[in-house]
Write a structure and sequence with these properties.
This protein has 334 residues and is mostly helical. It is built from 14 helices and five strands. The strands form two sheets. Strands 1-2-3 form a three-stranded parallel beta sheet. A two-stranded parallel sheet has the order 4-5.
Length: 334
């Protein structure tokens, strides 16, 4: 049976945090271990430069940081291909060919792009590279021959744009070389809120817990977590809804019975915030201790990590270069 091809990845704008773990990393490990998929994980450094163009050194440094996070959580380079976007010359070339198939209005109408432009306060100073990144993503997806792309529901417009390009390319050049991809939206997908409870976990907002955080840092961050501002005394009834401590317990504690007992106790009063935070710390320390220790070991031998990424990128080069030759032949360019 032919394995389904998956393309997924991250922008190396910093080390990965628990939001990445909940949203994608743990699912990637599960998918690779089924043996049913050919999984490619792209470290999208070129895409990261679309809105961090003045920090190329930092982006380069973070490639290794992200790779260490992958390996620490259980991404196995013998089962999943870890590769770097900028080292795959077929991708920008294919992007250029795809750009001719879309109008500016089509790109600007993408609701995901519009929302990100609003969040980043670009207004009328939108970098062209950022505006066209959905086309670059389409090149990534098609060059790997991806059948499935794991995304949140808010990213589905990206897959729709990719499939429009696929149909337009095949129609224009009288070929069937490109295939449409399907969004792979996890069941019960939800973004992990940040420590402040106001937004998703994000490096730029300073509300993140990183996989690399040591035990002292983890405890300090948990102590800062937003709870119920009206829960002024231990004996007061507290609000569970919107309380970040309980949100994290729901996400990370497998003992659902104990979590429910804590929620009930907190709701009727008599349970202090710090006691619940200490319990959460114990849960998270247990869950992430092994990952943190593995990451520390990888950090002792950076050359080993870089070699893993180099070998994965070479495999990806073979895949994408071979595909690019077929593309050029279908266009009459080779």
């Amino acid at each position: 049976m032919t394995k389904k091809v998956i393309l997924t990845g991250d922008r190396p704008t910093g080390p990965l945090h628990l939001g990445h773990f909940v949203g994608s990393l743990q699912n990637r490990v599960k998918l690779q271990n089924t043996g049913d998929y050919e999984q490619n994980i792209l470290i999208a450094d070129m895409q990261a430069l679309t809105d961090h163009f003045d920090q190329p050194e930092k982006i380069k440094e973070n490639i290794t940081e992200v790779a260490m996070d992958y390996l620490a959580v259980g991404i196995d380079p013998s089962k999943s291909t870890i590769c770097v976007q900028s080292q795959l010359p077929a991708l920008p070339e294919l992007t250029m060919y795809f750009l001719n198939l879309l109008t500016l209005n089509q790109v600007e109408r993408n609701p995901t792009v519009k929302e990100e432009i609003r969040q980043k306060n670009f207004e009328n100073k939108i970098p062209v590279g950022f505006l066209i990144y959905p086309v670059s993503q389409a090149a990534d997806i098609t060059a790997f021959g991806a059948d499935l792309v794991p995304v949140g529901a808010d990213q589905i417009p990206m897959i729709e744009d990719t499939n429009f390009i696929v149909r337009k390319f095949n129609s224009t050049y009288k070929t069937e070389i490109l295939k449409e991809a399907n969004a792979m939206v996890p069941e019960n997908f939800s973004r992990l809120v940040g420590l402040d409870g106001k937004a998703k976990m994000s490096k730029s907002l300073g509300n993140a817990i990183y996989l690399k955080d040591d035990t002292d840092t983890l405890f300090k961050k948990i102590k800062q977590m937003y709870t119920d501002p009206n829960h002024l005394r231990v004996e007061d009834p507290g609000e569970v809804q919107g309380n970040v401590v309980f949100t994290y317990l729901d996400a990370f504690d497998d003992d659902k019975k104990t979590v429910q007992e804590l929620k009930d106790h907190y709701s009727r009063g008599g349970l202090g915030d710090m006691k619940v935070k200490k319990y959460l710390y114990e849960v998270m320390e247990h869950k992430f201790k092994d990952i943190r220790e593995k990451r520390t070991e990888f950090a002792k031998d950076i050359s080993q990590v870089q070699q893993i990424v180099k070998e994965g990128t070479e495999r990806a080069q073979d895949i994408t270069n071979s595909f690019m030759l077929k593309i050029k032949k279908s266009m009459g360019l080779a």
